[in-house]
Amino acid sequence: MQGVVEIKEALLAARSKQMDLVEIVPGQTPPLCKIMNYSKYRYEQKRKKKEAHKHRRVGQLKEVRMRSTIGQHDLDVKSKHIREFLETERKVKVTINFKGRETSHADLGRKVLETIKGNFSSIANCEQEPRLDGYRMTMLLVPKKKVQTEQKKE
Length: 154
What we know:
By secondary structure, this protein is an alpha+beta fold. The protein has helices spanning 7-16, 38-55, 72-87, 106-119, 146-153; strands spanning 20-25, 32-36, 61-67, 91-97, 124-133, 136-143. Helix content is 43%, strand content 28%. The longest helix is centred in the first third of the chain and has 18 residues, at 38-55. It starts with 6 loop residues before the first helix and ends with a helix.
């Protein structure tokens, strides 16, 4: 903290310390400056950004695919995966794929999706109801907020 100093004096002080004079608040009069090693500062900022990038959650949406003629055991295995995704607070897109004439029996696929929706009604909300789009029927499940479930327990 040196107070108000002329630009020439500040530049000389920065050069004598082999550092840079960096303007911190440009719009202020007089401008607020700091003597620092600017390349080191930029390097630290880049490292912080990289570290924050590491911890972000990639792929908030998980997709589970199945057929309308899925067996009970296979449905249980897929349900286990859906539960794991919902417990880690990820959205789950459940997709039923139809082949050929199976689209004429879309009610079978809808029945499977309704079963899944009923199984997870305690831990997930259905954001997008089952709908047929070409040869696919999709539904989107979103985990319920933990705050809401804790309030219901009390």
